[in-house]
From TrEMBL:
Single GO term (MF): Hsp90 protein binding
UniProt xrefs under Pfam families: TPR_19
Swiss-Prot/TrEMBL GO biological process terms: protein folding
Taxonomic lineage: Eukaryota, Fungi, Dikarya, Ascomycota, Pezizomycotina
Record's GO cellular component terms: cytosol; nucleus
Protein name: Uncharacterized protein
């Protein structure tokens, strides 16, 4: 197996007029790759605009709409209308996940993590433990660190479903990432107490 840190200089040249790349190497794989590259270059030259346009910056309107949906969900949650809150969070998730691929992935992860965590809380308020567990885990997958609420919510859902061993494992992993977070510590003690009674 080759060391990924090793640099191998390949004997390639670019024709100044056609911009085609050629090689003096006898490597069939290299020749095939260069043929594909040259073909792509030719096809781009035949387009009306040979240079693709630069990606547009983050769509501020979309960001504002996602924030508005999250805030609307939060307002409905505070009113006790948990089903309505779930709908708003779901719409916000659709919009966040529909962002073009050239927009920063960190922005998408932050938006999605918050929306999933909030939707998990709304599901928990309705005693939808499975749905809450799935959303809390999706939130953690989007953003592992700095997301103690999602770690706690998944752990609480597992406890409510009677899956104490999984809950203990999950909360333990959460504590490894979040440090000595008080809510997670409290949930771990609660799980251990329930295990002793069982």
């Amino acid at each position: 197996m080759e060391d990924s840190e090793t640099f191998t200089q390949l004997p390639i040249r670019m024709d100044p007029t056609s911009k085609a790349i050629t090689t003096t190497s006898k490597s069939r794989a290299l020749e095939e790759e260069l043929a594909t590259l040259n073909s792509l270059h030719k096809s781009l030259l035949q387009l009306e605009s040979p240079v693709p346009p630069p990606p547009i910056p983050v769509n501020q309107k979309r960001s504002a709409n996602i924030t508005k949906l999250r805030e609307s969900g939060n307002a409905e949650f505070r009113k006790g209308k948990h089903s309505e809150a779930i709908k708003y969070y779901g719409l916000g998730l659709q919009m966040a996940l529909g962002r073009p691929l050239w927009e920063p992935s960190g922005l998408v992860r932050d938006e999605v993590a918050g929306l999933y965590a909030n939707r998990a809380q709304a599901h928990m308020a309705l005693s939808n433990w499975v749905e809450g567990s799935v959303d809390a885990e999706a939130s953690v997958e989007a953003k592992k660190g700095g997301n103690a609420k999602a770690w706690w919510r998944k752990g609480r859902c597992l406890v409510e479903m009677g899956r104490l061993e999984e809950a203990k494992d999950w909360v333990g992993r959460g504590l490894e990432i979040e440090g000595d977070e008080a809510d997670l510590q409290g949930l771990l003690k609660e799980i251990e107490a329930k295990e002793k009674k069982a």
